Amino acid sequence: MSELRGKARAARERARSPLALRLALVTLGLAVALGVAIAIAVSFGAAEVPLWRRLLGGVWSDAQRAILLALRLPRVLAAAALGGLLGVAGVAFQALLRNPLADPYVLGVSGGASLGGVIALIAGVGGLGVPLAAFVGALASLVAIERIATSDGRLTVFTLLLTGAIFNAFSAALIYFLQSVASREELSAIVFYLMGRVPSPGLATLAALWAAGIAITLALFASARDFNALTAGEEGALQLGVDVERLKRRTFVLGSLATALAVSAAGLIGFVGLVVPHLLRRLLGPDHRLLLPAAFLGGASFLVLADLAARTLAAPTELPVGVVTALLGGPFFLLLLRRRGASLGG
Amino acid sequence: MVAERKVDPRPLLEVRDLAVAYGSRRALDGVSLELSPGDIVGLLGPNGAGKSTLVRAISGVLADYSGQVMVVGDELRALPRKELARRIAVVPQEPRFDFPFTALEIVLMGRHPHLAGLAFESARDVELARQALTRCGALHLASRPIDQLSSGERQRIVFARALAQQAPILLLDEPASFLDLRFQVELFDRVRELAAEGCAVVAVLHDLNLAAEYCDRIVLLQGGRVVAAGPTAEVLTYQHLTAVYETEIYVDLNDITGALVVTPLSSRARLRLRDAQRAKVSPAPP
After folding, report:
1. What is the pTM of this model?
2. Domains of chain B, each with CATH number or no CATH
3. Interchain contact A169–B (C-beta under 8 A)
4. Does this complex have an ipTM over 0.90?
5. What region does A295 belong to: left with phi over 0, alpha with psi -120 to 50, or beta?
6. Contact at 8 Å (CB) between A289 and A275?
C-alpha cells in the first residue's frame, strides 16, 4: 500500500519535473514546425498544389492529386526522415567525441557508403541497387572501423577519429580512381550522386527510413543522461556510474547506422548534422534529453525546407540539395560563431 | 552516527596489497589502506608518488590492478558501475566540462547513479542538488553556465556534485588546489561534517598544514610505496617528511592554535640557520 503510494508520488514528482515539461513543449513545438514545413514544401514546385486552398474548401484537379501523392509527398517525407537521421547522428557523434564540431561523416562510415554507391553506379545496377550497395559499403566500413579502433576490448575515441579520417580519405581516393576510368555518362552520374539528392522513394523505403529514424532516435535517447555525464570526460563519467565502454560502442554503431541510411538513400548532404545540433544546443542548452528529439525534428524541418529550395530556386533546373544545405548552412554557421564569440561549446 | 560506528565497525573501504603498473613502470606497489566510517585519511607524498593513481584505482577507473579492493564489503571488480558510484563519490583533480551545462545541472549529474534508465530527476533530486549547493556556499551559482565560473567556483560545484551522490566513501583528489583560504577551510569543515555523519574520506593533499589540521590519519607515499602510515602526528615528522620530499621540512606546534605547523625550509632559511648555529658554536672573534 505504502509502496503504491510511493510510486504514485514518484510519478507525480516526475510529471512536475521541469525538464519533462520542457521536453514536451520543445517536442510539440518542433513537431508543429515540421508539419508546417512539410505543408509548405508539398505546396510548391514545378506545379503548385496549394494545401491551404484545399483546406479552405477548394478542390484539386486529378493531376494535382497525382503530383502530390505520387511525387511530392514521398519526396518531402523522405527529406524529413533523412534530415532527422543526420541531425540525430550529428548529436550522437558530438557527444561521443565530446566535440561540437563533429558531424555524421567524421567517423568514416560515409566514405564506405559513397564508395559502395559509386561501384554500383559503374556496375550499372539500377533502381534500389545503388542505395543497397551503399548501405552494404557503410556496414562493412562500420564493422571494420570498430574492429580497428578497438584494442584490449576498449574503443579509443582518438583512434576512432583517426581511423574514420583515414577511411574517408581512402574511400575518396578509390572514388577518384573510379571516376578517372569511368565513361562520361558514368562520371556525371557519380558526381550528381555524391552531391546529394533527396529521392522520391516508394512506400516501403519511406516506411523503412522513418522507422529507422524514430528507432535510432529513441535508442540514443535512452542514453541521453549518460551522454550528459560523458561531458565530464570518460573517467568522470565512469565515476558517475556510466558504463562508458558500452556507451561508446552503442553510440558509434547507432550514429553510424543513421549516417549509413542517410548517405545510402541520398548521397552526401552536408551541414545538416553539424548546423542543426549546434543551433539547437544554443537554443535549448546542452542537455541531450532535449537535444536528441529536437535534432530529429529540427533536422527534418531543415532538410525539408532545403530540399524545397533545391527544387524551386533555379527552376526548372534542380539544384543538388547538398549544395543548398552548404550554401545556407555555411554562412549561417559563421554568423552564429561571430555573434556569440568563439565559445564553440554553446 | 557515532553510535552507529560502534554497532558496525566493518570498514567501508579495505585496500590490500594493491599494485598498479603503467606499462613497465610500477605506479603502486603493495599499498594497503583501511577506512571506517568517520575516518579522514590524507594521502601525501611528492609528485609521482602514486596518490592520484591510488584514487583512480579505488574509484574503479583502472581496469588493471592486482590486490584486493573491498568497497563496503564487496570486491570492486564485482560491482556494477552504478552501484559503485552509489558507494564512492570522487572529486577529481581537474574536472572536465565539455559542454556548458549550468552549475545545477552539473550537480544533478551526481544523482545519475541513483536514477533508473530513462528516468528524469525528480523534484527530490533537484532539492538534494540545491541542498548540496547550499552546503558548498554555491547556491547563488546554480543557474550559471559552468564555463563562466572561476576555477575555484567550479571546484565547489564539483564538490557539491559529489555530495549529491550521497556515497558513504568520498575520494578527494587535490580538492582545494584552486580555492582561496576561506573556501579551503569551508570545504574541509564540510568534509569533517560528512565524516561525523559516518562517511569515510580519502583526500590527496599537497598542503601539509591542511592535512595536519583535518586528517585523522596520514598515508605517506613515495615511488608507489607506503613509507609511513598512522595517526597524523606520528607520520608528519621532520624525519619522514624530509626523507620523502627530499627537502628540509620542520614540524612544530603553533602556540595559539595547538595545531601542527609544517614549514618547508627555503635555501635562504637554511643558510640563515647554518650561520646562526655556527655563531653559537664559535663566538665571534674579538
Report:
1. 0.88
2. 2-245 (3.40.50.300)
3. no
4. no
5. alpha
6. no
